[in-house]
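Design job #97: recover the sequence.
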């Protein structure tokens, strides 16, 4: 455990996906108390939110110290985000690549909104550490996942709320294979198995087909990245 954070509380952006579950385990290994925050924003794959309770129970069963640190679970509803966006994550349309080089799964402003609401909640609860699964190493090119964006948000939130927030992004510089490895380093095979079986990544919300890397359509960008990372992780073991 890091001595710098061992007596403090963190708020983890927790969607119920692979990345956020890994970040939750990362935070539980470093902070004295960990609260979580999920968002209902009209996402097409809202089934991810239903996975959280099973993941919470699984996390508690892995390690007694993690169970004792896990604090309140919060969910905020922000349907306006879907109302003002025309994307494949908020509409029943095919996933395609846009002329700007971004897939139409990009929801403009999503992470900016998430972090602003997270900071507002953290402010009220006396929390200054916020943990998110943003990554610019192995991702779909979303500009609000870039380290430069997150550093700018940290500065803006700290200035705007007169509170020194620290935004932690433990996955920022690692690929999906390394994300699987990080989960293994944190919780061994039991955590990896929990993420495979109970977390959700698929953009289409598909939970019917189970693959060796978990549930999903197997074709969307999120499934493709997760599957590729799993294959590379297994090959390197």
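Job complete. Output follows.
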């Amino acid at each position: 455990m890091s001595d710098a954070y061992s007596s403090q509380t963190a708020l983890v952006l927790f969607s119920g996906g692979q990345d956020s579950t890994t970040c939750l385990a990362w935070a539980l290994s470093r902070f004295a108390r960990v609260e979580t925050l999920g968002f209902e924003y009209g996402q097409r794959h809202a089934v991810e939110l239903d996975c959280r309770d099973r993941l919470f129970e699984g996390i508690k069963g892995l390690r007694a110290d993690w169970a004792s640190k896990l604090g309140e679970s919060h969910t905020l509803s922000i349907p306006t985000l879907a109302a003002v966006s025309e994307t494949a994550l908020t509409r029943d349309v095919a996933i395609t690549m846009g002329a700007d080089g971004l897939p139409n799964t990009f929801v403009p402003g999503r992470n900016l909104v998430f972090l602003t609401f997270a900071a507002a909640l953290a402010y009220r609860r006396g929390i200054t550490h916020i943990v998110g699964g943003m990554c610019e190493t192995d991702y779909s090119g979303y500009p609000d996942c870039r380290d430069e964006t997150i550093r700018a948000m940290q500065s803006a939130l700290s200035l705007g709320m007169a509170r020194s927030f620290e935004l932690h992004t433990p996955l920022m510089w690692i690929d999906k294979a390394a994300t699987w490895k990080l989960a293994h380093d944190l919780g061994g095979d039991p955590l990896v198995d929990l993420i495979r079986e109970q977390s959700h990544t698929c953009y289409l919300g598909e939970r019917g087909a189970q693959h060796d890397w978990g549930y999903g359509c197997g074709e969307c960008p999120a499934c493709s990245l997760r599957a590729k990372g799993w294959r590379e992780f297994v090959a390197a073991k």
